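Reviewers asked in the last cycle whether our approach scales beyond single polypeptides. To address this, we selected a multi-component target totalling 556 residues and predicted its structure end to end. The input consisted of the following lines:
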Amino acid sequence: MDTLFTHVRKKSKTEFIITRIIQFSGYLSILYVSLISLFLIKEGFPAIYSVPFDSVFGKYWYPIESYFSIWPLILGSITVMIGATIVAVPLGIGTGIYISEITPQWAKEFLKPLVEILAGVPSVVLGFIGIQVIVPFIRESFNLPTGLTAFTGSILLGWAAIPTIVSITEDSLNTVPGSYRQASLALGATPWQTIWGATLPAARSGVITAVMLGIGRVIGETMTVMMVTGNAPVVPQGFQAIFAPVRTMTATIASEMGEVATGSVHYQMLFLIGIILFLFSLIINIVAYLVSFRIVKRSERLLS
Amino acid sequence: MVNLALAWAEQYQMLNSDVNISVSGGGSGTGITSLINGTTDLANASRELKPIEYEEAVKNGVLPQEIVVARDAIAVIVNPSNPVGELTLLQISSIYKGEINNWKEVGGDDLQIVRLSRETNSGTHVYFLETVIRLGDFEDKSIFSPTTLLLPSSEGIISEVRDNPHAIGYDGLGYITDEVKMVAVAKDPKSPYIIPSVNTVNNNQYPISRDLYIYTNKNSEVYINKYISWILSSEAQDIVLELGFVPIIAGD
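The resulting structure, written as structure tokens, was:
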């Protein structure tokens, strides 16, 4: 009896320590995020005082002559983001549905690792392929003055986002109970009607999370856009802006951070851009969270 | 000039096995910032130190010393299929300021001009802005047209000019390959149009050429001064010639 007791005590002691370690690493990530935000705010916030507000929304970004308008950069990032979403979402969800619902088991085992390999292609390699292959192709096929455009960036970033969307879509479709599909098919629905009307809506929260994380990957991507979008800080105008060069926020930080003197106005502006990027991904994550949360709530209500 | 710095370092380490030199790139601004922050012994730069940078260096206890180590010419390049072969400095300036937007205005085909430039952290960018766009006038505050594409590397510029008949670009003579066409440049319409080469730079005929510098701390160690005097030797200057830059002692 005695020995058993000490044994249990010992076990709970190790358990206690392990629990603390896991707890500590959990809190550590919260600490990291708050330290990063604090650092960004500390370095970037003074820019609001050093640069007049209306010049932030001016037309030029040319820091070596103190033109600090971040407006063209924000719009440039949004242009590329929208383009990449249009490329990545249909292809990504389609591939996810195909792998999860349609393809036979042997092909599934072959396709899944391939998609994961696509996710592992370094962005600089993607940019290199872009410069050598996609840029000349786009210039010739659309008869544009240059192939270094937002559209080129959108296609390549779409590729970069597709693996994320495919994996998460596929996972969430897999969690849909088989009984849903059987019920739908038993009611006389075709396989396509089953996917579109029963399986996909049941996995909706996962699919929306997939799209949001894909967009998050796009907005933060740097190397590829820097290589293929031309980096001209022009304010995009109208629909044809997708076929014109743009400069994104990430490319601006990456190409100018190495040169800038610590504490200067230019330095503060680059951190302000960092804050804006941070807010962008925060909003995307909050939307993804709210969407999945709301749908869980409703399904709970239906079940009760 | 990172190619040059690398070649020098490689050769010098081969000759002196006890010396270890590590070179990193990123543009003149990057090197000068590292010198100011004390994270490097030597900063290679293709532009002169700005007064504000000098002040900051002194504040950090670094006394920058300037040494001219080579010369460089900036070549203006176009696609080989472009019939335009000669431009004046003023025409190049107007093209980059966005005042000339079609090749037919300077005697070429009816094609929209696509302007290419290095990123703003490149010494070549600043030099081109001051010497060509502003024609050396310090009062002039004109800048690159915002539609200018800023590419992060020389390779990016060469490959876009090679593939695109609309494009005009510029880069150091050392980076130009046979795949693009160099434009002959004249100081003004009355002067002769000169193609950049080692000869035309050394006898000061080609209008867009400049000195390349190494900055060190005045109170630096003996081994650093030894390295600098080696760079100025004819052996090291041969490397300059091999890489397409212009050696400083050839003209003497």
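Chain A is about 75% helix and 0% strand. We regard this as preliminary and will revisit it once experimental data from Aim 1 are available.
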